[in-house]
Design goal:
- The chain is an all-beta fold.
- It has two domains: 4-30 and 85-220, Immunoglobulin-like, CATH 2.60.40.1080; 226-484, TolB, C-terminal domain (Neuraminidase, 6 Propeller), CATH 2.120.10.
- Helix content is 1%, strand content 41%.
- It has one helix and 37 strands.
- The strands form ten sheets. The protein has a four-stranded mixed β-sheet with strand order 5-13-12-9, with no helix packed on it. Strands 16-15-14-37 form a four-stranded antiparallel β-sheet, with no helix packed on it. A four-stranded antiparallel β-sheet has the order 17-18-19-20, with no helix packed on it.
């Protein structure tokens, strides 16, 4: 910092009067502040797939889901996705001495100014020095602060504010990316994710480039993380995992059907249903394909299994009492608890992220609708009441919404609603069929399977902010029942 020094020297009247200017350099440190119900006949008509539950003609008998492969001699090539155009609101900050800092920013003053506004020193009682402080940026805050994780093709608006030594603020800033091939940024802080990787976005005041703030931006695949699904690509239904959108691994290998998989809370195991021993039973396998273990063992059908996020328990549907009811099994001691008991068919159960409630579908009112209940079976509440069938609920990991599959508009679509049943919205809305939704760990995307690009189903992801759809598998056979592993489980403590 440069100090303007005004010096006045007073001597006896017979000496000449003179003026001397001097500069005092105070140390400056540049600190950076970072700021089963199985799918409807519409899905399986062309592939002659069967359902774990009865079809529309006969709702008295249930046959577990046994989809058939579609013979397609001319598989269609994968179409290239259109770039996303999602833009979050720009929170521009204008200079104002009284305006508070950005709500999400915690001020961390930087020790850039080391002198007091007025400094006086006397030499020989006649030499006075007065130092005036220059008004300049003290530190810079960025919103969001520290780190931002986005996906390829995402567009995101950053905002920043320079805080001056007198308390005023200004958003007149310049932006630069350390890796523009990964993340580009324009003069207004609008960033575009181009490919996977990391970049540092630096912001500074044009007049004082040494005063900076920065944020780390991490770009991940649209299908970042792990997704488990079932596929007919090898001639019968087997369990596969897909990691980060490109690492495909086959976990099971037998002549029967393994389907409707789900994750354990820590991602180390996968649970699924299989008819490899004659009837449908529940099995578990390690995520690397080893350690296959049979969980249920009886002469009835146990299907639609879901693993509790914070206890060693599973919930599933079984016809052991003649019709399909919901049961909870403690895997530590095999203790079995029946949750529902009615003449209807209850199935496709899924836990809430805190493990306190279970969403499921039931035809107790004629057609299938979505219900929720407490984990002990009490407090049943109906969420949907549509003219069609609603099934396969999926609870968002932020505990705010439930996605589900419905044919209320004539074909199978994916809907979302609040957890109390309000604001039901069709998010896929296309003339083909979309099935079996599952939320991403950040609750911003949903993975599902669809026949929108052919007669067989493949796996797709939809981004909720702009309804942009991405295809992540491309096979001439059938891929279905995807489930995204949640690495952000909310524990009930």
């Amino acid at each position: 910092m440069t100090k303007k020094l005004t010096t006045t020297l007073i001597v006896s009247s017979f000496l000449a009067l003179f003026f001397t200017g001097c500069v005092i350099n105070a140390p400056v440190n540049d600190n950076k502040v970072s700021g089963n119900f199985d799918k409807s006949e519409k899905q399986t008509s062309s592939t002659n797939k069967e359902s774990s539950y009865s079809d529309k003609t006969d709702k008295t008998a249930l046959v577990p889901f046994v989809p058939e492969p579609e013979k397609d001699s001319n598989p269609k090539p994968e179409s290239s996705p259109t770039p996303a155009t999602s833009i979050l609101p720009n929170t521009e900050i204008t200079p104002s001495p009284d305006k508070e800092l950005l709500p999400s920013i915690t001020p961390i003053p930087s020790p850039l100014i080391t002198v007091t506004p007025f400094y006086q020193e006397t030499l020989n009682d006649d030499f006075d020095i007065e130092v005036e402080q220059e008004i300049r940026p003290d530190w810079i805050a960025i919103n969001p602060s520290n780190q931002l994780v986005i996906s390829i093709e995402d567009i995101f608006q950053l905002s920043g504010v320079a805080v001056f030594t007198n308390g005023t603020q200004s958003s007149n800033l310049s932006w630069i990316s350390s890796a523009s091939d990964i993340v580009s940024v324009n003069n207004n802080g609008l960033i575009t994710a181009k490919k996977t990787g990391q970049a540092i976005i630096k912001v500074f005041s044009p007049q004082y480039p040494s005063i900076t703030g920065e944020i780390q931006v991490i770009v991940k695949e649209i299908a970042e993380g792990k997704i488990v699904f079932s596929s007919f690509r090898d001639g019968n239904y087997e369990i596969y995992t897909l990691t980060n959108g490109n690492d495909l691994k086959k976990l099971t290998n037998n002549e029967n059907e393994d389907s409707i998989p789900g994750w354990s809370s820590d991602g180390s195991k996968i649970i699924f249903q299989s008819n490899r021993d004659g009837n449908y039973e529940i099995y578990v396998i390690n995520a690397d394909g080893t350690g296959l273990t049979r969980i249920t063992n009886n002469q009835v059908n146990d299907v639609d299994v879901s693993w509790c996020p914070n206890e060693n328990k599973i919930v599933f549907s079984s016809d052991k009492d003649g019709d399909f009811e919901l049961y909870v099994m403690n895997l530590s001691n095999n203790n079995l608890q029946q949750l529902t008991n009615n003449s209807a068919k209850d199935g496709t159960p899924v836990w809430s992220p805190d493990g306190n409630q279970i969403a499921f579908s039931s035809n107790q009112d004629g057609n299938y609708n979505i219900y929720i209940m407490n984990k002990d079976g009490s407090g049943i509440s109906q969420l949907t009441n549509s003219p069609g069938d609603d099934y396969f609920p999926s609870w968002s990991y932020d505990n705010s919404k439930i996605a589900f599959q419905s044919n209320r508009d004539g074909n199978e679509e994916i809907y979302i609603m609040n957890i109390n049943g309000t604001n039901q919205e069709n998010i896929t809305n296309n003339p083909k069929n979309d099935y079996f939704p599952s939320w991403s760990p950040d609750s911003k995307k949903i993975v599902f399977d669809s026949d929108r690009d052919g007669e067989n189903t493949n796996i797709y992801i939809i981004k909720l902010e702009n309804k942009k759809v991405y295809r992540i598998t491309n096979h001439s056979s059938t891929d279905n029942f995807p489930k995204w592993f949640n690495n952000k489980i909310i524990l009930n403590r």
